[in-house]
Amino acid sequence: MRADEVNLLAKIDSLICNYVYSYMKGRSSKWNLDFVRTSVRNLAKLLQISKESDYNIKESQWAKEVSAQASLNLNTKKWNKEELLPLTSDLKKLKKSLEIIARETFEELQKNESDKSAYNCLKEVLCCQIILINRRRSAEVAQIKIETYKSI
User: Fold this and answer.
1) Most exposed among 25, 37, 39, 101, judged by the fewest C-beta atoms under 10 Å?
2) How high is the pLDDT of residue 104?
3) pLDDT-derived band at 63, boundaries 50, 70, 90
4) How many domains would you assign to the chain?
């Protein structure tokens, strides 16, 4: 075989090498060898053409053809995705624990009004309670600006 790009590509590609190995197992005639050589060259040429065409697609219309379709597929998968909801008993436990923590930190703040850690803990508990109350609109709390949250 000639040492050109096509043959080098055929030697590198594992699929073509596996094809040759499996086909030539037990066959050693001259006709089989010539047949394998021509088919390997044809496969390597096809591989080279497909790589070039893939590169051309990526260069020319990647955003329009491939990327748009991939985005559409991802969006449809999001729509069909099942949403796992927490159990009611877990929500009750969370609500009770938040109330207990809020009560304890509020008592600490009544004793010492300059306690920053208790104040920050109470802020976080109140934020969690707001999210728990507005389960369907939790994004509203997530969109609060950091400056607003820190200034409260």
Assistant:
1) 25
2) 92
3) low
4) 2
